[in-house]
Amino acid sequence: MPDRKTRQVRHYDIVIIGGGLAGASLAVALADTQYRVAVIEAVEFDSKAQPSYDERTIALTYSAKHIFSRLNVWDEELETEACALKSIHISNKGHFGKTRLDHKDAGTEALGYVIPTRALGQALMRNLEHATNIDFFCPYEAEKIDTDDAGAVITIKNRETQAPEQLSAMLAVIADGGRSPILESLGFSSESKTYSQSALLSIVKSNLAHQNRAYERFVPNGPLALLPMNDQRFAVVWTLSPEELETVSAMPDEQFLTHLQMTFGTRAGLFSAPTPRKTYPLSKTSLKTPYSRRVLALGNAAHTVHPVAGQGFNLGLRDIATLAELLIQTSTSDSDIGSTEFLKNYADLRADDTRRVAQFTDGLLSIFNHSSPLVQLGRNLGLAAVENLPFIKRALLKRTMGMGPEQPRLARGLKISPPPSK
Ligand SMILES: Cc1cc2nc3c(=O)[nH]c(=O)nc-3n(C[C@H](O)[C@H](O)[C@H](O)COP(=O)(O)OP(=O)(O)OC[C@H]3O[C@@H](n4cnc5c(N)ncnc54)[C@H](O)[C@@H]3O)c2cc1C
Fold first, then answer.
1. What is the predicted pLDDT for the residue at 1?
2. How far is CA 31 from its chain centroid?
3. Separation in Å, CA 249 to CA 125, 238, 243
4. C-alpha Rg value of the chain to the nearest Å
5. Where does residue 72 rank: exposed (0-12), middle (13-18), buried (19+ CB within 10 A)?
6. Does residue 43's CB lie within 6 angstroms of at least one atom of ligand 1?
7. Disulfide engineering: 153 pairs with which of 2, 27, 177, 206, CB 3.0-4.6 Å?
8. d(CA 63, CA 58)
9. Is any ligand 1 atom within 6 A of the Cβ of residue 307?
10. Closest-lying ligand 1 atom to the alpha carbon of residue 175
11. What is the pLDDT of residues 280-302, one digit of tens each?
12. What is the whole-number distance in angstroms between the Cα of residue 74 and the centre of ligand 1?
C-alpha cells in the first residue's frame, strides 16, 4: 500500500520517470496543459554518464519532424544541427541488388533528418525551462512505485544528498529506458531477443559532398549505415559480431579508417578524422502489456528494436504523440488517466504500429543476415523489385518516413484538437 502518512507528499497528475529522449518529449508535449507534471531524471544533462543525450546521432523520420515542429522543439537552433535526409541508397555488398529511396518519390522536401541526440536534448530542455506546469527533479532517482485505486506514490532519492522524497500522481509513466528495476518490481514481463551483435558508432569526414544521401550497405557480417551530417560528415552505425567489435574497437584510427573504407567501398568518398568509437549492445524487447493500473511504460522501457532501420525512437515518439493527444483530450473531463481502461485504450491504438515496426526491422535483419544462396537470391530480387515496382517502393517509403493516416495527429502535422468544453 502507498505510504502517504510518513512524510509530506507532493502531488502531481503525471510523474514521468526518466528525462531522456522519450520522457522529455512527453513532458514537452504536456507543457502548458492543465496537467501538473514532474519529471525525475537520474543523470544531469551535461554529464558524460548521461545515457540518452550522448554521442549518438539518430535518423528522425519525416513525421517525427512534424511532431517536434508542432511542439515548438524544432526551433532555429535545432534546424542548424539537423541534416536533411533526401535519399537512401540500399545495397548488398558483392551482389547485384540495390535500390534507392528518394524524397521526390514521396513528394516531400526530405525523407527524414539526421540529428545528434545532444542537440535534440538541448532543444527539449530549452522548452522545458519555460513550462510553468512542469517540475524537473535532477539528479533524482526513482526507487519504487506503489499503486492503489487512489493513485501512485513514487519514492525518489536525491542522488547528491541521498534524501528520499515521495511524490503522488494519478499516472506514473516509466521512461527509464528499461534501465532501472522498477518495471520488474511491478511485475511487468517482456519478450526479448538479444542479437549476437553490437553497434559501433563513430563520425567520419568524407572528401566528397554527401548530397544528403544515407547509405545502408549489407556487408557479410551485418548492416553498415552511413548517415549524412552537416560539414561533409557521416555518422557510421556498424553492426558487428562480438569478436569483430573487440577487434575494430581496439584498432588505431588509421587502421579503423582503412577497415571501414575496405568494407564499405569508395561510393561515399574517402573517409578521415574519425571520432572516438562507442559501442552499444543490441536487443529487441517488447513488454507483453505496456501498462498496469496507474503505470505506463514508454520509449525504450516499452520496446526496443535493432537500429538497422532507424526506427526505435521514432516509434516511441509516435507513442508519445498518441498519449499526449489522449491526455489533452481528457484534460477537462473527469476521466481517470491512470485507470486500466484509459491505458488499455492507448495501448490498443499503438499495438499495430509497434508490431509492424518490430516485424519490419527484424525481417530486414533476418533476410540480410542470412548466408543461404536461396535467401541471397531472394534478397537481390527483393531489392530489384523495390527498385522497379513503385507500389512496393511507396510502402517502404511510408514506413521509413513514419507516415500514414492511422498515425496520431501530431505525426501528420496537425494540432491536437482542444478538449471538448464541458
Ligand atoms: C546505436 C543506436 C542507434 C540508434 N539509432 C536510432 C535512429 O537512427 N533512429 C531512432 O529513431 N532511434 C535510434 N536508436 C534508438 C534510440 O536511441 C532510443 O530509442 C532512445 O534513446 C530511447 O530513449 P528513452 O528516453 O526511451 O531511453 P533512454 O535514452 O535510455 O533514456 C532513459 C533516461 O532515464 C533515466 N533513468 C533511468 N533510470 C532512472 C531512474 N530510476 N530514475 C530516474 N531516471 C532514470 C536515464 O538517466 C535516461 O536519461 C538508436 C539506438 C542505438 C543504440
1. 39
2. 20
3. 32, 11, 10
4. 22
5. middle
6. yes
7. 2
8. 14
9. yes
10. 26
11. 988 888 999 999 999 999 999 99
12. 19
Mean of per-residue pLDDT scores for the chain: 89
Do residues 146 and 160 touch, judged by C-beta distance below 8 A? no
CA of 92 from ligand 1 middle (Å) equals 29
**Atom 49 (ligand 1) nearest CA:** 20
Tell me the C-alpha to C-alpha distance, in Å, between residue 34 and each of 139, 167, 278, 410. Answer: 26, 18, 41, 19
What domains can you pick out in the chain, each with its CATH number?
9-191+283-412 (3.50.50.60)
Pocket test for ligand 1, best of 179, 201, 234, 354 (most atoms within 8 A of CB): 179
pLDDT greater than 70 at residue 64 = yes
Cβ contacts of 127 within 8 Å, gap of 6 or more: 28, 31, 71, 72, 73
Cis peptide before 139 (omega within 30 of 0): yes
CA 37 to CA 24: how far, in whole Å? 11
pLDDT in tens, 207-235: 999 999 999 888 877 789 999 999 999 99
Predicted confidence (pLDDT) at residue 409 exceeds the cutoff of 70: yes
Whether the predicted pLDDT of 57 surpasses 50 = yes
Nearest-atom index, ligand 1, CA of 298: 26
Read off the pLDDT of residues 149-182 as tens digits, 9 standing for 90 and up: 899 999 999 999 999 999 999 999 999 998 889 9
DSSP 47-100: -TT-SSSSS-EEEEEHHHHHHHHHTT-S-HHHHHH-EEE-EEEEEETTSS-EEE
C-alpha cell of 197?
Answer: 551483435
The model carries a pTM of 0.93
Residue 311 in contact with ligand 1 by CB distance below 6 A: yes
What's the CA gap between 28 and 324, in Å, rounded? 10
Whether 6 and 123 have beta carbons less than 8 Å apart is answered as no
DSSP string, 100-160: EEEHHHHTSS-SEEEEEHHHHHHHHHHHHHT-TTEEEETTEEEEEEEEETTEEEEEEEETT
Tell me the C-alpha distance between 228 and 102, whole Å.
14
| Ligand 1 site, residue 21, Cβ cutoff 6 A | yes
Ligand 1 centre to CA of 409 (Å) is 24
